[in-house]
Structure formats: C-alpha cells, structure tokens
Amino acid sequence: MAGPQSVSLVLLIPLLLPLGPNRCAVAQRCPQACVCDNPRRHVACRHQNLTEVPTAIPELTQRLDLQGNVLQEIPPAAFRDLPHLTHLDLRHCQVGLVAEGAFRGLGRLLLLNLASNRLRALPQEALDGLGSLQRLELAGNMLEELRPGTFGALGAVTTLNLAHNALVYLPAMAFQGLVRARWLQLSHNALSVLAPEALAGLPALRRLSLHHNELQALPGAALSQARGLACLELGHNPFTYMGEEDELALPGLRELRLDHGALQALDARAFARCPRLHTLDLRGNQLDALPPLQGLGQLRRLRLQGNPLWCGCRARPLLEWLARARVRSDGACWGPRLLRGEALDALRPSDLRCPGPGAEEEEAEELKATRPRTPDGAPGEEAGAAGPCPRSCVCVPESRHSSCEGRGLQAVPRGFPNDTQLLDLRRNRFPVVPQAAFPGLGRLVSLHLQHCGLTELEAGALAGLDSLVYLYLSDNRLSGLSAAALEGAPRLGYLYLERNHFVRVPGAALLALPSLFSLHLQDNALDHLAPGDLAGGRALRWLYLSGNRLARVSPGALGPARELEQLHLDRNRLGEVPTEALEGLPALLELQLSGNPLRALRDGAFRPVGRSLQHLFLNSSGLEQISPGAFSGLGPRLRSLHLQKNQLRTLPALPGLSELELVDLSGNPFHCDCQLLPLHK
C-alpha cells in the first residue's frame, strides 16, 4: 500500500523550487507563463490559457506539462525545438486536431498524454516520429473510429489507453504495429462489433480491458487473435449467453471478468479452450444455474456473488464439481425458501435433497414462480423464427442487432426479428413511445432512443421487455416518467436520461425498476433533491446528477440508496457540502463536487463517508478557505484529493490521510511562506 512518502503533489512547483538567489537563476530562461525547474529539466505551463506551444522553452527540457490550456490544435512539428523531451502532458487542452507530423522530432519521448481533449479522429501520420514512445494516453476524447495504420509507427508502446471514447466498431488490423503492447484499454466506449482480425498483430498483449461496452455476443474469434492474453476484462456488457460456439480460445488466459452483465445461461464448455484459467468472475449476472465447467483443470476461484442462484436438486452437480476440482466460490442461494441466503461454499451436495419422485418438477414450479423466466435461445431450446426487418431498417442476424438510426421515422416501427438484442432508433422524430411499442422483443437487451424529440412514454411502453438491461433516452424533451411507463422491464440496470427537461428526479418511476444499477440525469434542470426522490433506488450504485441547478440536497434524500458507490454532484449550485445528506451511505467510494460555488469547507464536512471514500473532487469550486478540520474523519481509504483551480492561498496539513497517492493543487494562487511549511513536510 502506498505510504505518505509516495504522495504526488501535482504542480506545487513554487513550493518545491529553491528559494533565494538561485531561484532567479533557475527561472531566467523560462517563458513568462511557465515555471521551470532547470536542474530537473522540467517545465510546467499549466492552466495559462495558452493558445499555442510557448517558445523559448529550454532546449534540454525533458518533461513538459501544458495541461489545462486552450491549444485546440497541434500543428506539424510543434515540438521540433525540444528533441530531448521524454514526457509530454497535453491533457485538458481542448485539442480537436492533431496534424500529420505533429510530434516529429520527438524520438526520445516515452509518455504522451492527450487524454480529456476533443479528438474525433487521428490522421494516418499524426503519431509519426515517436519510435521510443512507451505509453500513449487517449482516454476521454470523442474518437468514433480507428483507422488501420494509425499506430503503425509505435513499435515500442507497451500501454495504449482509449477508454471513455465513442468507439462503436473495431476494424481489422486496428492496432497493427503495436508489437510490444502489453495492455490495451478500450473500456467505457460503445463497442458492439469487433472485426475477426481486429486484434491481430498484438503478440505481446497480456491485458485487454473491454468492460463497459455494448457487446451483445462474445466476439470469440476476434479475442482469440490475442493468444498471449493473461487477463481479459469483459464486465458490464449485455451478454445473455455464452457457449462453445463462441470459439473463445486463449491458451494462456488466467483471469476472465464477466461481472455485471446480463448472463442468463452458460454452456459447460464455454471456456474449454482456456485451459489455464485460474479466476472466473461472474458476479452480478442473472444466472440461476451453472453446469460443471469442462476443460478448466487450473480453475481455482469462481466468483458468483449477486446471481439469483437456485440451490435445488439441479445444483448438486455444480457443488460436487466445485469440491472435486477444489474451486473456491462465493455467492448465496436465492432459493428454495429453506436455503435462501445460504453461502454456496458452505453447502454440501447432501444438503440439496430431492425427496421422492416429482421433486424436480416441484422445484421447477417454485423456481418459475419466484424468478423471471430465462429467455429462449440457448442451445437445446427451440428458438422462434426471426421475423422480417422493417422497411428503412437494417437487421444483422449474426450480431442480433437492428438499426433504424437517422431514417426520419415518425413512429416506432414494428416487425423486428424476435431474437433482436440491440435496437437502435436514434435520431428519428417520434414524440411519443406508445403502449406495447416493442412486441415480440423479449430478448432485447439494449434500446437506443436518443435524439428522437421524445416528450412521453405511455403506460406500458416497455411491456414485454423482460431482458432489457440498457435504456438510452438521452437528448430528448422528457420532463417526467411514470412507473407505468417503465413496467415490463424488471431487469433494467442502466437508465440514461441526460439532457432532457427534468426538474425533479422521477422517483415514482424508479419503483418499477428493482434492478436499477446506474441512473444518469446529467444536464437537466433539477434544483432540489428531496426525501423520497430516490425511494425506488435501493439497488443504485452509480448516481450522476452533474450539470443541473441543484442548490440543496436535503437530509435523507440519498438515504434509500445505501449501496451507492459513485455520486456525481459536480457543476451544480451547491453553496456548501451537503454533509447531512451523506449520512447513511456506507459504500460511497467517489464523490464529485467540482464546479460548485463552495468557497469554504467547514470542519467534518465529509465525516459521514470517511470510512469508505476513496476519491474526492473539489476542483474549480471557488474555494478560498479550508478549515483545519475539514478533512477530519476521512481516511484511511482516501487515495486521491482534487483541489486544483481554486483560490487557495494556503492549506492546512493533511496528517490523517495516510494512504493518499495523489493531491492535485495546481491552479491555486498559493502564497509560499511559512504557513505552507507543514503541508510541504
């Protein structure tokens, strides 16, 4: 665990430079908007509203930090006078264009950080000249496509981060040239299709992060191209079934994460061609049964928490296999009633009694009465015939995706194949979703209705969508939702309502969504969070309320969401930390309060969440004063504290935060006198 000696004070440069006459000698060749540490060959020009790369930077500079400026464009050979650069930070610079040859001449560069910009595409030769580059950060941009050859000149890169972009498809040979890449991060995109050769040419790849995407079926052929993979992260994708026919063949795979998806069935040989698999994570799915898994002689850990496991007669083979193969497992029984809540690893096969003829039939009837029926479609079941595709739409049987995006439709079309799992109706023009709008789509997992001018979902609009997990209603004109409108989708886990006209959280509607995991209400017109607004949010883990008009969060308003892990209240109108409202959130890990007019922090402001909080964001909040006891009660779990872009001239010491790894203090007008000495120490 990192100790206090490893804390990063991000750009508290004036405090760290030598004082006295030597200080002047260090700064004499420095651009006016920058701070130079010549002995270490570091130059920082952060948050200076620079519109171009400053001139007169010392030629021997090795680390250049331009974070938080407004460069917008990186022209050709922008850094040609800095051939010794090894680290270049261009985060948060509003960069929308990187010209071809922008980084030519930087043959020694090891780290290039272009995260959190506005890039939608990368020209073919934008990254030429970076033959020594080892790490490329492109997370948090708007990249919608990757062109083969983009990374062709990056033969030394070991880590490529493309998380939090807008990628929907990976073409063949997308990463050609990355022969030394060991970790490829593609999480938090909208990927639904990977070409069979998308991951070809990655012989050194050991870790692949594809969690939080829109993959409906396991792209086994594409994944099997990366034969050296040891860790594969596929959680938070709407998979419903996996079988041997998915052709996943990864002989070196040690860890496979399939958590928090929509899995309802798993074939015994689904991972038979991954013989070295050690850990299989299936938490948070919809599995009520699991067969003994074949071909996994080295499996030692099976994670099953959060599945509605049925510990009846049919679970005996699973328990016998777990004991025989010495596999440690977690998870608890959903039923039968006598075993509900029992830990799976505490049961013996003999505990699952089948007394007399007809017991299995009785058990099946009880299971049917207490659990939503698993949809058809797994092997061995008779799947219904797929219907025709509506005019103006495209239906792809291989991926079970149907799309009518941007076709000018004025009503929700009907007649999609009944095995459709993803339905894309974005950018059409129908103001109302009528009752029973999606007949025959009981296997639908992901429904996209963004940019449709919607003002209403009628009662019963989602009737019959028993498998729906993702519902996208962003960028419409909705001001309310009723529980009757959302009934019929009991497994809905992710509800996206950003950029609508809500003035209150649709609390009554949440009562119809017992499985709701993540609620997105960013950029609406909410002005108050009151008790009862989240009465139906007992399963909520992530709540996003950024960019509203919230001036008050009442005590008790968040109380029903006791499992909450992420709370985003940034870019609102809160004049103080809503301390009392944070009571009763024992699992909160991340709290976002940046961009609120806080001005000051009082003693014990975060005490209610002190035992759990790991990441606290208070940047750009107009903070002028922080009480000496403001952070009392926090720790020891706090890992990062973000205080950048405030009006702080001094800051008390942080003695109780023993596990801090990052403190960002950049962009504050610190007065570097003795008052800062305790913090510096």
TrEMBL record:
Q: Does the keyword Disulfide bond apply?
A: yes
What subunit structure does UniProt give?
A: Associates with collagen and binds to collagen fibrils.
Q: Which PROSITE patterns match?
A: LRR
Q: What is its main location?
A: secreted
Q: Where in the cell is it found?
A: Secreted, Extracellular space, Extracellular matrix
The answer, when asked if Lyase is one of the entry's keywords, is no
- Out of the domains of life, which is the source? Eukaryota
Q: Which residues form the LRRCT domain?
A: 307-355
UniProt cross-references to PANTHER family, sorted A to Z: ANTIGEN BSP, PUTATIVE-RELATED (PTHR24369), INSULIN LIKE GROWTH FACTOR BINDING PROTEIN ACID LABILE SUBUNIT (PTHR24369:SF213)
Q: What does this protein do?
A: Potential negative modulator of chondrocyte differentiation. Inhibits collagen fibrillogenesis in vitro. May influence chondrocyte's differentiation by acting on its cellular collagenous microenvironment.
First and last residue of the signal peptide:
1-27
Keywords from UniProt, A to Z, are: Disulfide bond, Extracellular matrix, Glycoprotein, Leucine-rich repeat, Repeat, Secreted, Signal
- Report what the protein is called: Chondroadherin-like protein
Q: Where is the composition biased (Low complexity)?
A: 377-388
Family membership, please give it. Belongs to the small leucine-rich proteoglycan (SLRP) family. SLRP class IV subfamily.
Q: What is the lineage of its organism?
A: Eukaryota, Metazoa, Chordata, Craniata, Vertebrata
Which segments carry the region annotation Disordered?
A: 350-388
Q: Name one GO cellular component term.
A: plasma membrane
Domain LRRNT as annotated: residue spans? 29-63, 388-422
Per the UniProt record, the source organism is Ovis ammon polii
**Gene3D superfamilies, alphabetically?**
Ribonuclease Inhibitor
